[in-house]
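We append the chain.
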Amino acid sequence: MSVTNPTPNPPRRDHDHHRFAISRMFDAPRELVFSLWSDPNHLRRWWGPKGSLISFSKMDFRPGGQFLYGLRMPDGQEMWGKFVYREILPPERLVFVTSFADQYGKVIRAPFNAQWPLEILNTLTLSQHFNLTRLTLMGEPLNPTAEESHLFRSMLDSLHDGFSGTFNQMQAYLETLSAK
């Protein structure tokens, strides 16, 4: 399984308002791509920035449930994050709120900037296109202050680069599944 040629079908960016959007095609069935988000044994193998490792994870995959994880960065720094699931429609849609957290799941400020929004509402959609799956992820701050909105908007290119790297890891993990 491989990503389709990125030249004719590049990831899309959306800079309107304060929403982030990225889209990627995967050469895999939609059900499998969905399972990479819904099964903690899959998610922990590819989620996060390049070079990071999930050191702890606990998932309660249901509306109102959460995915709590510890992330060890390449420099050894440990940080925590969580998803709180709002809507789950297998295999086509997930709506969840992401935030930085402590090891108990309490929402905290981002370690890199205290003005980063506390919570980001994310909508993940998966659509089947013949034997390919288009993943589209959109995110926007929940109830941001003016400063949080400004910082979020100013970091849209960084978000795009970060998620591109994460989706590259997801693609590499998908390829290990097809090799089995």
Q: What stands out?
A: Helices lie at 30-38, 40-43, 146-154, 156-178. Residues 45 and 173 are 7 Å apart (CA to CA). The first strand starts at residue 20 and ends at 26. The two ends are 12 Å apart (CA to CA).
